[in-house]
Amino acid sequence: MAATSYDVLIIGSGPGGYVAAIRAAQLGLKVGVVERQYMGGICPNWGCIPAKALLRSAEIFHYIEHAKDYGLVAEKFGVDIAGVVKRSRGIASQMSNGVGFLLKKNKVEVIWGQATLTAPGKVSVAATDGAPKGALGAGEYTAKNIIVATGARPRALPGIEPDSKLIWTYFDALAPASVPKSLLIMGSGAIGVEFASFYKAMGSDVTIVELLPQILPVEDEEIAEHAKKRFEKQGIKILTGAKVSKVVKGADSVTATVETADGKVQTLTADRLISAVGVVGNIENLGLEKLGVKTDRGCVVIDGLCRTNVPGIYAIGDVAGPPMLAHKAEHEGVICVEGIAGKHAHPMDKLMIPGCTYCMPQVASVGLTEKKAKEAGYEVKVGRFPFIGNGKAVALGEADGLVKTIFDAKTGQLLGAHLVGAEVTEMIQGFVLAMNLETTEEELINAVFPHPTVSETMHESVLAAYGRAIHI
Ligand SMILES: Cc1cc2nc3c(=O)[nH]c(=O)nc-3n(C[C@H](O)[C@H](O)[C@H](O)COP(=O)(O)OP(=O)(O)OC[C@H]3O[C@@H](n4cnc5c(N)ncnc54)[C@H](O)[C@@H]3O)c2cc1C
User: Fold this and answer.
1) Contact 128, 139 (CB under 8 A)
2) Pick the CATH number of 167-277 from 1.20.120.430, 3.40.30.10, 1.10.530.10, 3.50.50.60
3) List the disulfide bonds (predicted).
4) Is 372 known to sit in a ligand binding site?
5) Which of 357, 338, 324 lies closest to 149, judged by CA?
């Protein structure tokens, strides 16, 4: 009979929860994870991974469409959306099963069901469907430390509530039965623009409506503008400073009333609407209020070591607030359990968390935008380098991109890096390391970048900030 008492009991098996569980087990703690629905959470099941699988199909389709540009002949090709979705769902199950395997390997006990905190150190689990083989079930469990890692769900705007038929959330958009001829996307954050790229490549007529003055609102203005121009060149229509104020559903279409900042009102009709206006933390029905755990605007309030205001209760990942990213959740999982185990855990520095968006072209960034750096009082030196000056990017047929670096003019400290173009999500980590190591311009200038690689654009952008770029 398995124990029902743990050193650490984690509610939610997403990137935050499962990574915390594995690290805690490595530290010799007795660990349990309660999961009600998706082994591995949103990321492998209905988030990062299936979205990237769909985008990969879109990317390959795009290359086949442009085969002629590479001197190739591709005559008969098309989209089999059922096949595209099948591949994505298959990868999602593979990743989800992988998380189950890792938990088992690390001797973490999985408890299947809906968890509620009933008292300090006590969690009650009610049965839910779909328990994997070997999982524990409904019952009362105790733990010295409880980590809330319950993630988030799509935000719904009043009057524009998703119905899975005409108004979609990411769940629906990740597994369409067919490709809508026309599609309206509300919100231009990472999720909105990734779906815009996917559906555009699949043949939809896509319009994005964004409330704020720029798309990709958290990104550097110049990079967002570059991406916008590329999207528009591909035929994606974009309305910024525009609000969807009303949606009327037809038999097989939606008509949205859109108000723009200049006071103009227009109606747009499309087959489907994707609501991509952000996510809200899963803080309800957990017993948090009863135990006095502080929450703010839909998220649990934590300190740098993921501690809530109630001793013995912690929160990590999406439920603990932005940025709502899998790698932030994972990192918080490690910080949290290392703190519990009495290790010298380092508090999270949110400025060092990179953001990656896998639209076409990709966008990646870390640190301060130029605007934020100036607002923070820095005198800045800014370097820019376009992909057109990079031999590898041109050879790849991916000459449209930009790397922008921002330095403190006084000290040479790298404050931020912002990239748009092919594979920049793989390149950003170079700048993440540089920022973590508090690198200066001199050290980056002295580093040797391999040739020919697209990463040379990173070096050139640093050189450009100091008037030394070679290839422009
Ligand atoms: C379409 C899409 C694409 C994305 N792409 C990226 C990307 O490219 N990169 C990136 O970094 N992030 C991406 N994200 C965000 C990423 O998925 C989340 O940041 C990440 O999953 C958060 O991890 P988490 O552990 O906090 O929570 P989750 O992954 O949401 O997991 C929480 C788990 O807790 C369980 N749970 C909740 N309440 C209870 C309860 N009471 N009892 C038991 N179990 C419970 C849920 O069932 C769920 O499995 C994407 C998200 C979406 C929707």
Assistant:
1) no
2) 3.50.50.60
3) 43-48
4) no
5) 324
User: Which residues sit with their C-beta closer than 6 Å to ligand 1?
Assistant: 11-17, 34-38, 41-43, 47-48, 51, 114-115, 149-152, 170, 191, 282, 286, 317-319, 324-327, 329, 358
Which residue, judged by its Cα, is nearest atom 2 of ligand 1? 47
CA 186/CA 4 separation, integer angstroms: 45
Query: How many angstroms is it from 2 CA to the middle of ligand 1?
Result: 28
Going from N- to C-terminal start, the domains of the chain cover 5-54+81-153+280-350, 167-277, 361-465
d(Cα 175, Cα 178) in Å, to the nearest integer? 9
pLDDT tens column, 331-360: 999 999 999 999 998 999 999 999 999 999
Q: Do domains 5-54+81-153+280-350 and 167-277 have the same CATH topology?
A: yes
Closest residue by Cα to atom 15, ligand 1, is 325
Q: For residue range 230-285, list pLDDT tens digits in order.
A: 999 999 999 999 999 999 999 999 999 999 988 999 999 999 999 999 999 999 99
Fold of 361-465: Enolase-like; domain 1 (3.30.390)
The tokens describing 92, both together, are: 């999602």
Q: Domain 5-54+81-153+280-350 adopts which CATH fold?
A: FAD/NAD(P)-binding domain (3.50.50)
Binding residue per annotation — 191?
A: yes
Cα dihedral 176→182→187→190 (10° resolution): 50
